[in-house]
Design brief:
The chain has 261 residues and is mainly alpha-helical. The protein has a single domain, classed as Heme oxygenase-like (Heme Oxygenase, Chain A, Up-down Bundle), CATH 1.20.910.10. Helix content is 67%, strand content 0%. The longest helix has 30 residues.
C-alpha cells in the first residue's frame, strides 16, 4: 500500500503495536508485578534495567546533535534533564539508584554496568544507534512506547508495593514521576510524527520504529528470564552476592512477601 494514512488511522496503527508487543505482556513482568520474583531476581532486573535508564539521555543527546530546528531542541532537551537531573531536580537516574540502593547494591558497581548481561548492553546500544542513524521522524517515533508506559508503571507501583517488603514509596519514586512525564513526552512525539510524515513509507517506518523499540524492551526481559529464572546466568554477568554494599554483605536486604508467606 502506498496511500498516506489519515492522521487518525496512523495513530491507531501506532497504538496497535503496544497491544501485542509492549513488554507489559512479558512473563517476567507478570512474575515481577505479581510478587513471584525472588529478591535476587528483582536485583537482577534493577541492575540490568539501569543500563537502559543510563542509555536514554545518551540517545536523546545523539538525537539532538542532528536537529537544526531550535524549537525542537528546546522541546527535546527536557528529556535529558528528566533523566540526568537539572539544578535542584535530581533526575530519573538518581531515582533509579535509590531503587538499587534499597536492593543492597553498591552504586559504583551499578554505574559501572560491569554486572549487566551482554544481551542487555547490546539491546540498549542498538537503541542508541537506531536513534542516531534513522531519519528524524522515525527516531522520534521510536520513543512512542511511552504511549503505553503509564499502565505498566501503575501496575508496577501497586504490585511491588503490595508484594515486596523492601519496596516503599521512596523506592517507587522513579515510576511515580514517569506517570506525568511519559504522557507529556508521548503527546508531543505523537503529534510530531503525525505532522511530519509526508509519505506512506515514512509512516510505515514510524510504525516499524515502535516495533523495534518494543523488541529492545522485550529482548532485555527474555535475557533476564533465561539468566535468572531458568538459571543460565551468562559468563561475566552478575551473580547473587556480588556488587553489594558492605553493610548488605552479611545477609539479604529484603525478601518478597510471597516468599515469606
Amino acid at each position: 500500500m502506498t496511500d498516506l494514512m489519515t492522521p487518525k488511522a496512523f495513530e491507531a496503527a501506532l497504538r496497535e503495536v503496544g497491544k501485542t508487543r509492549y513488554h507489559d505482556l512479558h512473563r517476567f513482568h507478570k512474575k515481577l508485578h505479581g510478587g513471584q520474583c525472588s529478591f535476587e531476581q528483582v536485583q537482577a532486573w534493577a541492575l540490568n534495567r539501569y543500563c537502559y535508564q543510563e542509555a536514554v539521555p545518551r540517545k536523546d543527546a545523539a538525537f539532538m546533535s542532528r536537529v537544526h530546528d531550535r524549537a525542537l531542541r528546546r522541546e527535546w532537551i527536557h528529556r535529558i534533564h528528566d533523566h540526568d537531573g537539572f539544578g535542584e531536580e535530581p533526575g530519573g537516574i538518581e531515582r533509579w539508584l535509590i531503587l538499587t540502593d534499597a536492593l543492597g547494591f553498591d552504586r559504583d558497581y551499578v554505574v559501572s554496568r560491569k554486572g549487566a548481561m551482554s544481551a542487555t548492553k547490546f539491546a540498549v546500544e542498538a537503541y542508541v544507534h537506531f536513534v542516531r542513524e534513522q531519519p528524524l521522524v522515525v527516531a522520534v517515533a521510536s520513543s512512542l512506547t511511552e504511549l503505553f508506559a503509564p499502565s505498566i508503571h501503575r501496575e508496577r507501583i501497586s504490585g511491588m508495593l503490595e508484594h515486596y517488603d523492601f519496596v516503599d514509596d521512596n523506592v517507587m519514586a522513579y515510576f511515580k514521576r514517569r506517570l506525568s512525564q511519559a504522557p507529556r513526552d508521548s503527546d508531543f512525539a505523537l503529534e510530531y510524527v503525525k505532522a511530519n510524515c509526508r509519505t506512506r513509507q515514512e509512516q510505515d517506518g514510524c510504525i516499524d520504529a515502535v516495533k523495534f523499540k518494543c523488541d529492545v524492551l522485550w529482548s532485555q526481559l527474555d535475557a533476564l528470564w533465561t539468566g535468572y529464572v531458568d538459571g543460565a546466568i551468562p559468563p561475566g554477568a552478575w551473580r547473587p552476592g556480588e556488587g553489594m554494599k558492605k553493610k548488605a554483605r552479611a545477609g539479604r536486604a529484603g525478601k518478597s512477601r510471597a516468599a515469606a508467606a
